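Appendix B. One record, verbatim.
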Amino acid sequence: MEAATSARGALAEAVGFLSYFRDLKDSRQPGKVSYPLDEILLLCLLAVLAGAETIVDIALFGQKKLALLRRFRPFAAGTPAHDHLGDILATLDTGQFQTCFAAWVSALTGIPDGVIAIDGKTSRRSKSKGRAAIHMVSAFAARQRLVLGQVQVAAKSNEIIAIPKLLDMLAIEGAIVTIDAMGCQREIARKIVEKGADYVVALKGNQGTLQEDVAVFVAEQQANGFQNTVVTRNETVDADHGRIETRTVTVLHNMAWLKHRHDWPELKAVAIVDSVRELGAKTERERRFYITSVPGTADQIGPAIRDHWSVENGLHWVMDMTFRDDECRVRTDNAPANFAVIRHIAHNLIRRAPGKQSLRQRRKAAGWDDGFLVQMLVA
């Protein structure tokens, strides 16, 4: 009896995530729904965790794993065919789905420590006739390596519009939000500060004379040995596969004049990152500028800048190589964006799964071992 009660409790815990999607509106006509929405979400998530890469894959998983699915929900009508499943995903409200996802992650992780990297990615094969490929902007917790939320960039829009919507979904108090040059906008910086976080934003020529003023000031100070400003420095050297890369981070701290001149929210410092890459006889040099509200030194700001790029290897690369995102041909209406959210849920659960295997190996194990698949939901 105790064992049976414990098993039922584990199953209930395994599908606890569904409670965060309870308010997701189902556009289907009431009374004519053969496949409840919670069953559809559970089917999609378990299938993707187990290796499904397309809606056809998910439908096949439903046919083959119906007994497993019925351990969690009735599935009285079985599971839908792929075309019906695709229609359901296509009609779900994308914005509401993304908001539910962010609430689930927030409950799972609390307010993340360290850097939250915001960056966009295009799902290349989602392009269809008369419609561009979808572009999603995601927030990635660098230390926890989890997706915190995502927003689809609307057609004929850009990341500047999407980023504030994404920030509205997130609890970021105490974090450092890093964004590339596309997000170098006063209103985005202001929203980050108002939500109790700091920012580190890459600087390019999309803010009038801001970059020019910074570049001129840095050149002048460099010429006189930075005698007229407070400076901290941090240097790192990495050697890998015959390549040596030296990064020198120089932070200029007394930048009140720049904040006043450009009306930039809580601007505390300017960071210069000089990179020197040596590969054999070839040497490449690059200089990048950043503005930040972080009051810390180069020892703190430098790692935050570097952590931003974890979103490339920790999320974008994983979505392409482990989840085959760029090969996904889901294209109808809201289905591509909603399928992307499901992949992000699966990504987070696989990250949290026990064991030292790679994400790819964990996903394969979930496809081969129902016990491990269920354990992922509870992790």
